[in-house]
Amino acid sequence: MNDSVALQKIISSYCPLTYDQIDLSLAIQDRYVSKNLKDAFGDDICDQWPDVDCTDLHNQLFSTLKSGNDILTFIHGA
Amino acid sequence: MKLSPKYLISIAGALLIAGTSQAQNFIKTDLALSFLGNKKLVQTFDFNLNRTDEVQNNSSGVYFLYTHKYYIVPTVDANIGESVSAANNNIVTQVTFGKVLGDVKRKSGMDIANTRFSAEISPTYNSDKTFAEKLYYAQFKFIYNPIFDHFGGPADNPELQREISIAIDPIFNLGTHDSKIYQTEQGYSAAGLNTSFLLRYIDKDKKGAIHDDWVFKVSADGYRLFSEIRALYAKDYYGQLVLSVDKWVTSKISLSLAYKYGNENAKYSSVNTLTFGFKYKY
To answer: How distant, in Å, are the alpha carbons of B32, B85, B226 from that of A33?
Structure first.
């Protein structure tokens, strides 16, 4: 399973869509994941990719990291 | 000067306010109408970091640390108004050490449910705005927070339309009360329950831009005092009820209307007020 699919699967657990319907170029907040579930979403990403800086991720999630592609770039930079 | 824990907490609080002022969520200014004594209109100013009216404080976090579901998050809540008895007039500074205990997800059709359990220990500094009455305590808190999201619109392009968030948090405070007025210092302990019910309603246009974003919230906090400076309080049970409506006019600006009734720490003075607020998030 590549990183894009893994991220799509995480996002799809927060909305009615199946993972292959998730468009990683779109902004995530309140379209796929409610802003009030940001912390749970961040936890899932940290669980999937243990090398990422969780503090940074939680602080930047939905502010500078808007879309799924932004998150992938962040993960690959780790 | 001896360096007792309470001095250290004050210093940490002051540094926290200074060091994190750039990271605060928003500034808020209110006009408040007090129903206590002579009805009057007062001006208040709120400074908040990681503690907002419309969300649980741990989901707007600017974290010091977040790793393996352990987190450290500072919160500052300074409410400074011109009247003594109208609106909240106190300062609360906390550093929260928390652990996420569990996260349970459920998905069925257009509905998503997410329930989060966590436990927190927070060294807290709480004073009135004149710094005459000061509380230094450790707050132990267990958080139970289910969130229910309802999506609507076409099945291939659903949109978040409604959110209900319920929080039921038992708390226990243990520390000391330092009173300038009564020239004494005494043990302080209290146990209670913080509860809140939040309904968020979102309306989007066909392109997905947010048209309307309303947040209705009811929160009720109650606690029983077990030990405190006897002269300061008249009854054993205290609490505060807050009803509020927030509307995001743009993604940065929100207007709010709130009614508060009850008591506030650290003076246990009464609050009975209607406030109209303007909030700017940056």
So the answer is: 35, 41, 42
ipTM confidence score:
0.91
Q: Quick check: B247 and B115 in contact, CB under 8 A?
A: no
Pairwise CB contact (< 8 Å): B61 & A57: no
A31 vs B151: CA distance, rounded Å: 9
The model carries a pTM of 0.81
- How far apart are alpha carbons B108 and B71 in whole angstroms? 30
Chain A partners of B59 at a C-beta cutoff of 8 Å? 35-39
In contact, B161 and B151? CB cutoff 8 Å: yes
**pLDDT per position as a tens digit, A17-38:** 999 999 999 999 888 999 889 9
Q: Angle of helix A68-77 relative to helix A3-12, nearest 10 degrees?
A: 130
Amino acid at B214: W
Whether A36 and B202 lie within 8 Å, measured CB to CB: no
- Give the chain A residue nearest B282 (alpha carbons): A63
- Please classify residue B183 by burial: count the beta carbons closer than 10 Å to its beta carbon, then call 0-12 exposed, 13-18 middle and 19+ buried: exposed
The one-character DSSP state at B251 is: S
